[in-house]
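Backbone-to-sequence.
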């Protein structure tokens, strides 16, 4: 099948009100629910659903092709990463507003209409999100996230829209591209800092927008999966992309993880240097033992749990090493088109509901 190449400004009218872009890779168990919920949500306001597939090897595309949606796919599997999927969908969507949804999420009805109304009332807002309802309460990873209660998940003006959001196309065009195709993680934060550096604002409404049931793999298996897929490279790739740009200050201010993983690298360097310190051997050994155990002991004191403390320290080490790799990972230009193919075109987009665009 002939590949289709789209530059970011090449998709011409007719526009439609809203595009829900579903990014997916091997989501055959979830994709039908994601598509059906998206079609139901977009029917309230008018628009389309686009599946951006990262060369799935299961039945994801086969199942998705049964629905009246556009199905597009990466031409080259080696371009597969978290940042490529949203950009692929953006290249092929026609909405004046774009919502990004993961293939293991379900869109909830009742969010798009108030989100569009909010954007109509606030022309300074580039995007608006809602509450992401996390259904996996058993995984240690997701329990720890919930306990952190990040400020950007609370209603009001926020510095990012993790978990999905509805974005204004005009703002995305000003920022140059929707998602950096090089990023293995942090693609939503990257978009946020690019928009905020241009003066746009982001908001989160106190409305449920989507549900998510995260990976149910044991926590250490999840860490290994993130290492194999390059997910842990994401922070280093984000820093490299922002280096020398005005948005770098926003990255440094907003990335708590960057400070943690940098501290881990310093910890490693000191541990490596201790055996060569000009001290008696017993003192060097004692110093090494104390320093090696210090992070675990500190986290045990904070979390009151050996299991949670151990996972935190191991996770930091994985991510610190991944950050180093990401800093030196080769980059493609994020402004160029991603080679892709259109596997299915829908009959037509749903008609708009004019009251949301008055």
């Amino acid at each position: 099948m002939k590949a289709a190449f789209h530059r970011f400004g090449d998709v011409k009218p007719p526009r439609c009100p809203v595009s829900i872009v579903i990014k997916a890779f091997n989501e055959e168990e979830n994709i039908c629910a994601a598509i059906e919920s998206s079609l139901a949500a977009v029917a309230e306001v008018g628009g389309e659903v686009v599946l951006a597939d990262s060369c799935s090897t299961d039945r994801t595309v086969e199942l998705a092709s049964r629905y009246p949606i556009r199905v597009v796919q990466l031409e080259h599997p080696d371009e597969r990463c978290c940042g490529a999927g949203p950009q692929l969908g953006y290249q092929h969507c026609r909405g004046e507003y774009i919502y990004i949804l993961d293939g293991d999420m379900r869109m909830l009805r009742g969010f798009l209409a108030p989100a569009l109304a909010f954007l109509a009332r606030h022309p300074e807002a580039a995007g608006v999100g809602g509450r992401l309802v996390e259904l996996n309460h058993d995984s240690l990873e997701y329990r720890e996230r919930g306990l952190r209660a990040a400020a950007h998940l609370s209603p009001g003006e926020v510095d990012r829209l993790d978990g999905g959001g509805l974005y204004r196309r005009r703002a995305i065009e000003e920022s140059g591209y929707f998602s950096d195709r090089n990023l293995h993680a942090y693609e939503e934060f990257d978009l946020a800092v690019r928009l905020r550096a241009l003066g746009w604002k982001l908001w989160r409404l106190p409305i449920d927008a989507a549900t998510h049931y995260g990976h149910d793999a044991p926590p250490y298996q999840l860490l290994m999966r993130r290492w194999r897929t390059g997910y842990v490279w994401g922070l280093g790739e984000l820093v490299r992309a922002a280096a020398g740009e005005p948005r770098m200050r926003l990255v440094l201010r907003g990335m708590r993880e960057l400070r943690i993983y940098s501290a881990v690298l310093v910890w490693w360097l000191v541990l490596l240097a201790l055996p060569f310190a000009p001290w008696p051997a017993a003192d060097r050994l004692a110093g090494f033992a104390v320093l090696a155990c210090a992070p675990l002991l500190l986290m045990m004191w904070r979390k009151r749990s050996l299991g949670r403390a151990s996972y935190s320290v191991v996770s930091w080490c994985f991510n610190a090493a991944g950050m180093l790799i990401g800093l030196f990972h080769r980059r493609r230009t994020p402004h160029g088109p991603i080679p892709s193919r259109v596997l299915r075109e829908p009959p037509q987009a749903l008609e708009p509901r004019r009251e949301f665009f008055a």
